[in-house]
Design brief:
Elements (H helix, E strand, L loop, with lengths): L1 H8 L6 H14 L1 E2 L1 H8 L7 H12 L3 E6 L19 E5 L1 H11 L3 H4 L12 H15 L8 E8 L7 E10 L4 E9 L5 H16 L1 E3 L7 H7 L3 E3 H5 L11 E5 L4 H14 L1 H4 L2 E4 L5 E4 L6 E5 H7 L7 E2 L11 H5 L5 H45 L36 H27 L1
Parallel strand pairs: 6-9, 9-12
Antiparallel strand pairs: 1-3, 2-3, 4-5, 5-6, 7-8, 10-11, 12-13
The structure holds zinc ion.
Length: 446
């Protein structure tokens, strides 16, 4: 009797909200610990009891089940795992739980995917690393659990059999990340396998399919060269990305030195997929053309946890980027872009235009001055020339005036003789008139 009462008393209780949040998290992550669920939906709490209770209630309802624990095979429960964290039960959804999660998340069967994601019996180390990555993003203020999907296949061909499966896909437009593919590497396979995965992403991004929005037959569409769209855009139609979706690799599972080497090696092996074409022009300027290149950013899980996605955690693999770590949005922003080049080129053109206009104005002013000078010279040439005095041997001009005192009345300028000559004539005429007077007087008297 007492034991029954104790069992009744200890029966876990949980709110509908807590249970719904647990279902949503498991609907996305498929397998998770109570602490991971807590970090994602109750980040302000430190005790995961509220999540454990919700899980137990959901277990009683047949929605979730516990399969193994994070330390791996049974028998190691409670032992510290690689990160020194205590081992925890792994939880996943039943078929009924998957249905419930799908309707809570508003995702159809295809979108929500299958139940299993790395069998819990093996400790699900890969799923745990992916979960830790998603927790680091969420705690860093980017999106919430509904911003994520895990194990998302992207078909490489129409048959759909070959595909590149993203460990996680983030869609957080409000955080400036409309679409981010996330891969988590636990240093368990050769780096060449990771490089192959980058190549697969490039192949997937390059893949073109019929645009279902374009009418007409396939033949007509292919003849017109229209009606085909990048396949990835049909999966994520509203990303608004100017180029290919960015790809983030998160490295864990080895020491800092080994991870650093893996990062370097991956960068070297995948150059053809991330290196922009360096375009140079006659103006001595140019830009990095990232068309059809994968925006690749790398970090370690430790770094991501320490700094958060908005902290200096990321290395962009591209030309002209140092080895320093940057916040995610900074790392994803292209440098020396076409737009910036076009702005510089436009500025240079405007400056050249201004110089040319100034030169034209200077030339026009010069020309006006020259014309004015010519006009003055022409006017001077056309000005009437004052003739010389008609008196033989007189060097004076006809308008030369008498510049000495005289009692003689000089006739006005006549355009023929100079002043002195007219003076001389007037003087002679006066003498002549006197002589005539003298001649006339005696005769008159006679
Ligand atoms: Zn004269």
């Amino acid at each position: 009797m007492a034991s029954t009462e104790a069992r009744v008393k200890s029966k876990p209780r949980s709110t509908v909200k807590d249970q719904e949040d647990v279902l949503k998290v498991l609907g996305v992550l498929k397998v998770a610990t109570a602490t991971q669920i807590l970090h994602l939906v109750r980040p302000h709490l430190s005790d995961n009891k509220v999540m454990r209770n919700a899980l137990l209630v959901l277990q009683a309802k047949g929605k979730v089940l516990s399969e193994g624990n994070t330390a791996g095979p049974a028998g190691r429960f409670g032992a510290p795992d690689r990160n020194g964290e205590p081992s925890q039960k792994l939880w996943s959804l039943t078929a009924a739980g998957l249905d419930a999660a799908g309707s809570l998340l508003g995702r159809d069967a295809q979108e929500i995917g299958g139940r299993a994601r790395g069998a819990g019996q093996g400790g699900a180390p890969h799923a745990m690393a992916v979960n830790a990555t998603i927790v680091a993003f969420t705690r860093g203020g980017i999106g919430d659990i509904t911003s994520w999907r895990t194990e998302v296949p992207h078909a490489l061909a129409a048959t759909g059999k070959q595909n590149v499966r993203a460990d996680a896909v983030l869609r957080a437009k409000e955080a400036g990340l409309p679409l981010l593919m996330v891969e988590v590497d636990r240093a368990t396979e050769p780096v060449q396998r990771l490089a192959d995965k980058v190549a697969s992403y490039a192949a997937c991004y390059r893949r073109q399919v019929n645009n279902p929005a374009t009418p007409g037959t396939w033949t007509a569409r292919s003849r017109d060269g229209a009606g085909s769209v990048p396949y990835w855009q049909t999966l994520y139609p509203d990303s608004g990305l100017p180029g290919w979706p960015p790809l983030a690799f998160v490295f864990t599972g080895a020491g800092p030195r080994a991870l650093h080497n893996r990062i370097q090696e991956l960068a070297t092996l995948t150059r053809e997929h991330w290196a922009a074409d360096d375009r140079q022009f006659d103006d001595g300027d140019g830009f990095l053309d990232f068309t059809d290149k994968v925006p690749l950013v790398l970090t370690t899980l430790d770094r991501l946890r320490e700094h958060g996605p908005h902290g200096p955690a990321w290395r962009r693999v591209a030309q002209e980027r140092g080895a320093e770590f940057e916040p995610l949005l900074t790392a994803l922003a292209d440098t020396r872009t076409k737009a910036a080049y076009q702005q510089r080129a436009a500025k240079r053109r405007a400056a050249a235009d201004a110089r040319w206009q100034a030169e034209l104005a200077a030339r026009a002013a010069e020309q006006a001055q020259r014309l004015q000078q010519w006009q003055a010279e022409e006017d001077a040439e056309r000005a009437p020339v004052v003739p010389r005095c008609a008196t033989p041997d007189c060097e004076q001009l006809v308008n030369a005036e008498v510049d000495w005192y005289t009692e003689i009345t000089i006739p006005p300028q006549d355009g023929v003789y100079c002043g002195p000559c007219r003076h001389d004539q007037a003087y002679r005429n006066r003498g002549l008139r006197g002589a005539l007077r003298r001649i006339r007087k005696p005769s008159g008297q006679a």
